[in-house]
Amino acid sequence: MWRRSVARLATAFSLGLKRHGGLKRHGVAALLVAVGLSACSTVTAPPPVAQGARQTTQPTAATPVVDPSQNVKVALLVPLSGPSAAIGQSMLDAAQLALFDMAGDRFELLPRDTKGTPAGAADAARQALAEGARLILGPLFAAEVAAVKPVAQPAGVDVLAFTTDWNQAGNGAFVMGFVPGDQVERVTGFAKSRGISRFVVLAPRTPYGDAVVGAMQGATQKFGATVQVERYDAAATDLSGPARQVAQGAGQPQAVLLAEGGSRAQALAAALAANGVSPQQVKLLGTGLWDDAQQGSSLGQEPALVGGWYAAPTPQARAAFEAKFEQTYGRKPQRIATLAYDATSVAAVLARAGRGVDRSAMTNPSGFEGLDGLFRLRANGAVERGLAVLEVAPTGARIIDPAPSNFDVLGQ
């Protein structure tokens, strides 16, 4: 039995890519890191593979057993060349960490370059399937996912895609990216529990804005609240117009949900305050676009946003992962690198437990605990997440309502 450092394994991994081969978990002893993903009751728990990994109750139903003499091959489709190569490399490096943290000896990762194009993604999928891949992780972009699905579906191979385009869910594809539905429902429900029942949603005329509006309408109906919808041109540079729409609307809202992040959210908040929508009287709410500390944009630098609420994954586990990533590779990971880590970990844990990587194993309602918190894969391709509610502060954000510990809290 022996152990290599992750840094040395990274070198071996790069060499493996040049040979267009797969990457296996070498060595029996797992690396001891504090960012391992633990399986919930979805799978039979494997032997401890990461320091602090949390075991939960075992499933009682009979589960399929995979031939232990066969390698479980899983493809990772990310852009390793082209304009998005830096994102793809960060995701590949995160998957590598998961591989050496979580996988057994017979788990094999097949990284393939999509080139950031639909044709490249389809070619990468065909190559991986020809080499025996039983699950596809990725690709990243919606058009790539659309090109991969008709390749994977006839082979009976599922796709854990990293896109945020919820329209790609279904027909064998799961959307792992952060979509607004859970975020909007979570923050709206929390606001309702604090006595807020009159909402305005202020959203650009974009597909993302459409999704936020739809989610807000569904959430307010669910929680017995009302919502007024105000839309504006996504290309508008002067945001005082949309702010006036809210200020001059019928009735004073108790909360305004902004479907913007970063500097756009800051500008909208300032415009609302300038037009009489006081943050002391009207609570500002946000989506996961506010979860942007990685980008160096502190929302709390805008006084009108201080005290605003948004729903997002609990940041602590991600912070530990980011520190480990930077220590290993000498640079910070891209924000969405956690998706690659979590997806690889799901596949590795299921394979190590002898469950295989088929849909029945992945869609158990108990779900998984990942770097971005509790999540479960729905049969319709949606990924449901258990999120915390955070409050914007001048120096960052603080948790004011923790993420649920299991899906019993959220309901089945």
Which secondary structure elements does this structure contain, and how are they paired or packed?
Blueprint: H1 6-18, E1 23-24, E2 38-39, E3 72-78, H2 85-102, E4 107-113, H3 118-130, E5 135-137, H4 142-152, E6 158-161, E7 173-175, H5 180-193, E8 198-204, H6 207-223, E9 226-232, H7 240-247, E10 255-258, H8 262-274, E11 283-286, E12 309-312, H9 315-329, H10 337-352, H11 359-362, E13 368-370, E14 373-377, E15 383-385, E16 388-393, E17 396-401
Parallel strand pairs: 3-4, 3-5, 5-6, 6-7, 8-9, 8-10, 10-11, 11-12
Antiparallel strand pairs: 1-4, 2-13, 12-16, 13-14, 14-15, 16-17
Family: Belongs to the leucine-binding protein family.
Protein name: Penicillin-binding protein activator
Domain Leucine-binding protein: 72-395
CATH topology of the largest domain: Rossmann fold
Q: How many beta-strand elements?
A: 17
On the 0-100 scale, what is the average pLDDT? 82
| CATH evolutionary superfamily of the largest domain | Response regulator
Order of strands across the widest beta sheet?
Answer: 9-8-10-11-12-16-17
pLDDT < 50 runs, ≥5 residues? 1-20, 25-66
Share in β-strands: 15-25%
Oligomer: single chain
Largest sheet: 7 strands, mixed
End-to-end Cα distance, whole Å, is 43 Å
CATH class of the largest domain: Alpha Beta
Q: Please give the CATH architecture of the largest domain.
A: 3-Layer(aba) Sandwich
Write down the secondary-structure element order.
Answer: HEEEHEHEHEEHEHEHEHEEHHHEEEEE
Helix content: 25-40%
Helices, by number, come to 11
Which overall shape is indicated by the principal axes computed on the Cα atoms?
Answer: elongated
Radius of gyration: 22 Å
Q: How many domains?
A: 2
Structural class: alpha/beta
